[in-house]
Predict the structure.
Amino acid sequence: MTLRKLKEAQPVTELDVQQLQDSVSVILKKVRDEGDAALSFYAKKFDNYEKEFRVTREEAKKAKDKLPPEVIEELDFAISQVTAFAREQRACLKDSEVKASLGTM
């Protein structure tokens, strides 16, 4: 079997990188400040997606009913593993309180 190159990487300049970083920073700030409204804005802008993000319990149940039992079993296992890890991690944390000094420097 021979390998065939499908596409080649285009050279990227420092200016390209800086412009991309600036664009992403603007997007992240808007999402931080505006939450779901910003997510809806960018979903429409980039993906032409205008539907609701949230799924109802009924929609989730219908989707789950379409899954093979093995997938549900694997998802349940993954959920239990992540939950157990989070509980153990939380148990290792301790509350702390620190008073800030407002003295002169």
Notes: The chain has two domains: 14-54, 55-92. The radius of gyration is 23 Å. The chain has a mean pLDDT of 91.
